Amino acid sequence: MDIYGYGGDFNKYDGSDNNFCDNGLISPDRVPNPHAYEVAYFYQNIWTTPANLQKGEITVYNENFFRDLSAYYLKWKVLANGEVVQSGFVNDLKVAPQQKANIQLPIDLKGICPCKEVLLNVSYKLKAGETLLAPGTTVAYDQLTLRDYQAPDMKLANSNTTNVAVKMPTVQVNDTSYLIVNGENFTIEFNKQNGYLCRYEVKGMQLMEEGSMLTPNFWRAPTDNDYGAGLQKKYAVWKNPQLKLTSLQQAIENEQAVVRAAYEMKATGAKLYLTYTINNKGAVKVNQKMVADKNQKVSDMFRFGMQMQLPKTFDEVEFYGRGPVENYADRNHGALVGKYRQTVAEQFYAYIRPQENGTKTDIRWWKLLNRGGNGLQFVAEAPFSASALNYTIESLDDGEEKDQRHSQEVAPVDFTNFCIDKAQTGLACVNSWGAIPLKQYRLPYQDYDFTFIMTPIYHEMK
């Protein structure tokens, strides 16, 4: 096994600050760390801002002091819900150093459905090679919004077939250990001891790893910056907020099964409510609601969301959101919104020491699929963040103090660990010895409400 050594790896006598001198922009093998892409974005010298986007007019600012933009050409694309629908080039960029110029692009939105989000991607590329840079190298880019994203209606409807009566799901309550929801070609089970969804089978396809559960999640494996600010101790109450089931109820409402679980969170004084609405095809709308005790003083949390484990065969990811590299609430400016297809294995980045990684933000929809294209799709009431790894949070967590570990030494698990979050606290990329995220990127102790829908994806055999 090959690892990159850092302070403390070589002997027990030398002074050491752990991996402090080995966590910069570039890893020892010259591979850019994920945060390098964000730095590269802010270091670029050509900037694009709206002038009159409805007429296709943009403003280009040349931040260079001593060269104009004649060495570059502009490439633009219009994307509707992530699909390229128009594109073009501007070969003659007449923008002097430290000057701005307006440029007209032949954009036409008339043929694009008003229901779709429309984005404009602009990139600036070299006409000819320069030193180490080949012709066509992108030296700057931006993404502008032509039409805002419209979140989907979160009303979960039954799937109706003409002249065929809806077959409502039924709830079996006489089992000692499980509350069982049966429907046409699906079975969903809830553990009566803790109220958690613990089995999800549709048309013979097991969508959850055996023995796993869909559980609330408020914790992440602390990052280097988290350790530097002591957040692994300050936020420790959220690692195990001592959830205790106080009520588990079920009903049939509007020809759908509804399961409601209520919890005390003894360590925080809050109340948590999980509501599951299940339609006739096995789609599940999940509502996670936390009501804080206004009289309690409790720390911020790392995240507000849920996690579940799927069989390892669900090893492909498709999503419409910011990518392709990992990104976080305060480190996502350089990640463009688009449609991406990746593997679960590609989500993990081997930082010098193990820690939280692989998250994507501003997700519109997310799919976890097997090789046959079957799996689960997730959508939410607003753009959300998500990750899918072959590593658990626990396996990447060093505990209260940094351990002398390396990412390559962490054994992957034999399932896909999926996290879906309303929000996750930022990374505080100011320094790694005390800075915490800016206020707008923190999650204070307060009320939260998060709704998402899980929809099975399966292809009929013909």
TrEMBL record:
GO biological process: lactose catabolic process
EC supergroup of this enzyme: hydrolase
Keywords, sorted A to Z: Glycosidase, Hydrolase
Domain Beta galactosidase small chain/: residue ranges: 180-455
EC number: 3.2.1.23
Pfam families linked to this entry: Bgal_small_N, LacZ_4
GO cellular component terms, semicolon-separated: beta-galactosidase complex
Coiled-coil segments on the chain, per record: none
Matching Gene3D superfamilies: 2.70.98.10, Glycosidases, Immunoglobulins
Record has Hydrolase as a keyword: yes
Cross-referenced PANTHER family: BETA-GALACTOSIDASE
Reactions this protein catalyses: Hydrolysis of terminal non-reducing beta-D-galactose residues in beta-D-galactosides
Name by which UniProt lists this protein: beta-galactosidase
GO molecular function, one term: beta-galactosidase activity
Species for this entry: gut metagenome
Keyword Hydrolase appears in the UniProt entry: yes
